[in-house]
Amino acid sequence: MGNTEFNIVPAPSHPNSFGWTNVMDWDVHDAPEIRAAVVARMQGVGISTRKNNLLCYLQTWLRFKGSTISMQGPLGPANIGDEGHWAVVGGTGEFVHAQGSCSYKRTHTVSGGGMINELHIRVMCLIFPKPVPVKKLGPWGGNGGAPYEINDGELPRRLESLTIYGNDFIQTIAFSYTDQVGQNRTVGPWGGDAGKFKHTPIQFGPLEYVKEIYGTTGSYG
Length: 221
Known about the structure:
This protein is an all-beta fold. The chain folds into 2 domains: 15-125, Beta Barrel (AOC barrel-like); 132-142 and 150-220, Jacalin-like lectin domain (Vitelline Membrane Outer Layer Protein I, subunit A). The protein has strands spanning 4-9, 21-29, 38-48, 52-60, 68-75, 83-92, 99-109, 115-124, 156-166, 170-179, 184-191, 202-203. Strands 1-2-3-4-5-6-7-8 form an 8-stranded antiparallel sheet, with no helix packed on it. Strands 11-10-9-12 form a 4-stranded antiparallel sheet, with no helix packed on it. The radius of gyration is 29 Å and the shape is rod-shaped. The model has no long low-confidence stretch (mean pLDDT 82).
């Protein structure tokens, strides 16, 4: 698409071209050269007051495709070395509730007109975990005892650790997990009361998960 900029409100007869308005659609590359990969587009309007005020959003591609970052702030004169900051005031997609700043610096001109600006964007976002569907299985085990349940408001998102109590057979289990809103919780020990021996807890890594649990039940001794 290239870089596009059009004047939509001509400058009236006021000092500093007060009221002059342009609409722009600029490429954002991953390196300071025209042939570098385009990773986003900066689209918005520039309105001249005492300085040019830029109101725009950054439409991201690749990893954050479909997300945008909204920015606003003063844009200085088109001179090499001019620099400044814009406020990040929100966003969409991966950048919902984004806050931060974007610094720019005019580094050099390009043949045929135009100028390259170096951008440094620093953003902090609030992340709200999306609910993960929970599938209920069981109950499994013998005919005695009482069932154990996790409350609806504490449903798990990810298993963090498992602790086994027992000697020749598993007597009791306990586990810790992260719930749907990111809070750490510990459950158990669940099971019988006799013959307990606590084994070292099994800690799960970020990419580890339980694929299968199997065994038998019955009388012992």
